[in-house]
Amino acid sequence: MTARMYGALLGLGNTAVIALGIAVREHGGAPAFMALLFIGSFVGVPSGMVIGAIAKRTPGWPVFARLVVIIAPAFFVVTLFGTVARFDAYIVLSFVPTIVAALYLERWTRATQPLPAAQRITNLHQRETESNAVANARW
After folding, report:
1. Which regions of the chain are under pLDDT 70?
2. Of 24, 126, 105, nearest in space to 58 by CA
3. Cα 82-93-41 angle, rounded to 5 deg
């Protein structure tokens, strides 16, 4: 899965969590949740794709710098959409799932380093093989 797809998936998940919270608290029902999810996904999915593309371009950066670069636009989108939709009371609360989504995106797109060979085990195996050869030579 590409970084953009991860971003889109996390943007949709973030939108779903925020829509669920608002629907339960404000309107209380599945139709309100579905409406909020439908409308919010028009913003959440594309912005998640853009943030995923940003994350893809920064795999070797330090984790803190990557988190700043990923979280800042996400906070901006949540604040802008919450203000336009007049859900000002839920903007700060919506930062919680946004931070979680950003942490997942950062971790999924982080550059990985190959694990070094287990030197102790290979050296131990080498010594065991050598000692077995010496023991067999004595017999």
Report:
1. 27, 117-139
2. 105
3. 45
pLDDT tens-place string over residues 77-103: 999 999 998 888 889 999 999 999 999
Tokens of 17: 């969590």
Which structure tokens are listed for 52? 């995923």
Quote the tokens at residue 100. Answer: 């979680």
54 token code pair = 């940003």
Tell me the C-alpha distance between 82 and 93, whole Å. Answer: 11
Instruction: Calculate Rg over the CA atoms of the chain.
Output: 24
**Cβ–Cβ < 8 Å for 9, 47:** no
Paired tokens of 64: 């803190």
SS3 state at 135 = helix
User: Please, is 38 exposed, middle or buried when counting C-beta atoms within 10 Å of its C-beta (0-12, 13-18, 19+)?
Assistant: exposed
Residue that the structure tokens 């950066």 belong to: 61
- Distance between CA atoms of residues 101 and 98, nearest Å: 5
